[in-house]
Specification:
It is built from five helices and four strands; from the N terminus they run βαββαβααα. The protein has 192 residues and is an alpha+beta fold.
């Protein structure tokens, strides 16, 4: 079960949040960086230095619990709270920040997808229909598929961006299919 299962498609603003507050020793800095990466990787929203939020779910509570244990093992302090914002604007700000974070990821994803389309077009124009090139392009498409599979579970407040990303991915897959067919023709291989 992914972190997003409880919230996918639910856009209600009245919700509880989990807050994680951590304080780690100044050295080694690698502990702070590892924590930052882990929390960003699951879609946690950085509120202020050392404070993180996630929509309330048992999965997120377990995740914050593990992060807090790790912080304590490294000589730091950690506390986890549930919170209901007193002001609707606070919740809206958290949702907006989460969407902005995912928006930056979707923008970068779209840029990379466009680069793959451009690569296919360039190789087609050069008539570089080789199995090596096909394999490289297939590998690049697989990386895009894996990347989108990482973004989607941390998109707690999905909007049009996920549909756009899936459309970009479909466009890449269609371009690869055409390129693949050209490679097989060029190489004289019959497809089944």
């Amino acid at each position: 079960m992914d972190c997003n299962t409880c919230f996918k498609g639910i856009l209600t603003i009245e919700r509880s949040w989990l807050l994680l507050h951590v304080q780690l020793p100044a050295e080694p800095s690698s502990a702070r960086v590892a924590l930052w990466r882990r929390l960003r990787g699951v879609g946690a929203i950085g509120i202020v230095n050392g404070a993180w939020a996630l929509p309330y779910s048992q999965i997120h509570a377990d995740l914050f619990g593990k992060a807090a244990s790790k912080v304590r093992e490294q000589g730091g302090r950690a506390a986890i709270f549930t919170a209901d914002p007193l002001d609707l604007n606070e919740t809206e700000a958290l949702v907006a920040q989460s969407r902005a974070d995912r928006g930056r990821e979707y923008d970068e994803f779209a840029e990379r997808a466009d680069m793959l389309i451009a690569e296919i077009e360039k190789e087609t124009k050069k008539r570089k229909f080789t199995f090596a090139e096909l394999e490289e392009i297939e590998h690049d498409l697989e990386k895009l598929i894996e990347w989108l599979a990482k973004i989607e579970p941390r998109d707690f407040f999905p909007d049009r961006r996920i549909a756009q990303a899936k459309a970009h991915l479909a466009k890449c897959a269609a371009a690869l299919k055409v390129f693949s067919e050209q490679v097989f023709v060029y190489e004289g291989v019959t497809q089944r």
